[in-house]
Amino acid sequence: MASILTLTMNPALDVSTSVDKVVSKHKLRCSGVRFDPGGGGVNVARVIERLGGKATALYAVGGPLGEVYQGLLEAELDGATRIAIEGNTRQSLNVSETSTGEEYRFVLEGPQWREKEWRGALDLIEERLSDGAYVVVSGSLPQGVPDDFPARVARLAKQAEARCVVDASGAALEAALEEGVFLIKPNRRELSDLTGSDLDTREEQEATLQKIVDDGGSEVVALSLGGDGALFASVDDAFHIAAPEVEARSAVGAGDSFVAALVLRLADGKPLEDAARYAVAAGAAALLSEGTEMCRAEDVERLYEELRP
Asked: Which of 61, 115, 139, 147 is most buried, taking the most CB atoms under 10 A from its CB?
């Protein structure tokens, strides 16, 4: 299996809890508090480990919250490497309203990076890249880090003959496509913002994905469509995978689980269509977990079997 490296520039200490009803100006008594080391690339690495694979996670943390984050992550994930920064790691709060089933997510502002810090991160990434490896750049960029940071990682990946996977949005995604990457995983809103089109029909979606591939922006495009599954395009094929029906408890981590399963299967040499089914199964499995908990391997395998032809 090809090696997998994940990068999380703006991780968050995820706090999840529940309350009967969210009411303004009242002191709300919460229950069932859970703490998780969150952030796109870290979540991808955590899911890969849960699914029996191996990934090295590079993650940037600092300050007192960074120490807490590091302790939680090292207790769960082997092979994680800390990128030390001066700023304090951010937090996110996920609140489930038990009386209605609604979910509220509050994401706090991240730290300010200095130029020498993000350039040092690029140096570390370059050291860890190897021929044939997959490097997954996932999640938001912190303040002070240039929008073209994922594009810079993609450039390093090309030089090392590695494959760069980008799960980003806005200017960061646009810059990555201009550089050219191996795979991107936007959702419909992110792709719509990028193209300026609503992408309401399957025909519009397919045409947009194929144009990205044909223009050399990305060799593979995986467009996640929530309950409608996902649409995939590559130089060889384009196809749709329907999502299995599940009773959703939380949407947290669905996209990261999708990316983790997709990359894991591709790194193991599986065909894109098989990897796509596994990814859709993992994304759906994440909906079955409470709060900020990631998908469970047994749920992924069960749903994957349902999707097999």
From this structure: 61
